[in-house]
Structures are given as C-alpha cells and as structure tokens.
Design brief:
With 182 residues, this protein is mainly alpha-helical. It has three domains: 51 residues, no CATH class; 68 residues, Arc Repressor Mutant, subunit A, CATH 1.10.10; 46 residues, no CATH class. It contains ten helices and no strands. The two termini are 33 Å apart. The relative contact order is 0.08.
Length: 182
C-alpha cells in the first residue's frame, strides 16, 4: 500500500524490481521499528545515564536460543555463533558455554509457560516439519515461495516467471527435473 501510494508506476515494474523494492522497504521499516522500540522502552523504563538490556530483548534472545537447540538441533557453540556471542575463555578446556546453556533453559521455560509442555512440543514439531519441507525444495522453488508471499501473488505464477529466466531446457524439462506436476 505504501509503495503504491508513494511510488507511481509500482504496479508497472517488473516482478523482480517490485520484489527488490519491497525487500528494501521492509528493511527500512524494520530499522524504523527497532529504533522506535528502543525509544519506547527507554521512555517507559529508562533511567538517565544508565543503560541495561530491555527484559523483552533478553527474553527474545533466550527464546531464540531454545528454538535453535530444540528445533534446529544446534550445539551451545553453534548457538553462540548464531547469536554473535564470544566463547568463554575456558571453552577449549571445559567444552561448555554456560551462558548459552542458561539461555536455552530460560527460553524453554518461557515457551513451556506460554504454550504448555505439550503445546511447545507440538509447536517445535511443526517448526521441524516446516524446516524439512523448506529444505526439500529446490533453490528456485524457495525463491518463488518467498517472492510470492512478499508480492501477494500466486506461487505458480512466480515459479513460472523464474523458470522462464532459468537457463537449462524447456519448462517441461525443468518440471520433470524438479518433480513438479504440470
């Protein structure tokens, strides 16, 4: 809606250009929301000349750590890398990352408190199933799915458009190779 209002001719752009414009707009909106969230958090809880992490930010990081462990099966070290955390000085000796271990435990507790034990188990399984479905798709199918969702157009239309630009045979040959029914 914003793009259609502020960018005359948006609907006339090529599908790829619209996708790029939407992606860049989303990035700017996310930056704005993050800065706005910081301001709101400070106004509600801030104290002059003191800065501490907002409880929601800490909880979100703990939950992300729990999801990375239980859904993606990452180790504490891998979780630390994903969350841009340094390894403790004694990691090579002990092979443990106590901060991440505690984050995972707190995150899991928060998820169980919100969803219940069975609810979290069901949600984690649904997330694993979705990840498996996603990884079973070809690169072009994944891109088509993302673009179709971002642009609000049918998946098949985007997939066909991407396949037409893809070198390597006719549409039918690509469909057979990728296991798509025509």
């Amino acid at each position: 809606m914003l793009l259609r209002y502020h960018s005359p001719g948006f609907d006339d752009l090529a599908l790829e250009e619209r996708g790029d414009l939407i992606a860049e707009t989303c990035a700017h909106i996310n930056e704005f929301v993050e800065v706005l969230h910081k301001l709101m958090s400070f106004l509600e809880h801030g104290k002059p000349k003191r800065r501490g992490p907002a409880a929601t930010r800490v909880a979100a990081r703990d939950i992300k750590a729990a999801v990375l462990r239980e859904v993606d099966g990452l180790t504490n070290r891998q979780i630390a890398e994903v969350l841009c955390m340094n390894l403790p000085a004694d990691f090579l000796i002990k092979g443990d990352h106590p901060t991440v271990r505690k984050m995972v435990r707190r995150g899991r507790s928060a998820l169980v408190a919100a969803l219940g034990e069975e609810g979290w188990r069901d949600q984690a399984q649904a997330m694993k199933d979705e990840a498996e479905r996603w990884h079973s798709r070809s690169e072009i199918q994944r891109r088509a799915e993302l673009e179709a969702e971002a642009l609000g157009v049918p998946y098949e239309e985007v997939l066909e458009h991407l396949e037409e630009r893809q070198p390597g045979g006719t549409r039918e040959e690509r469909a057979i190779r990728e296991g798509i029914a025509l």
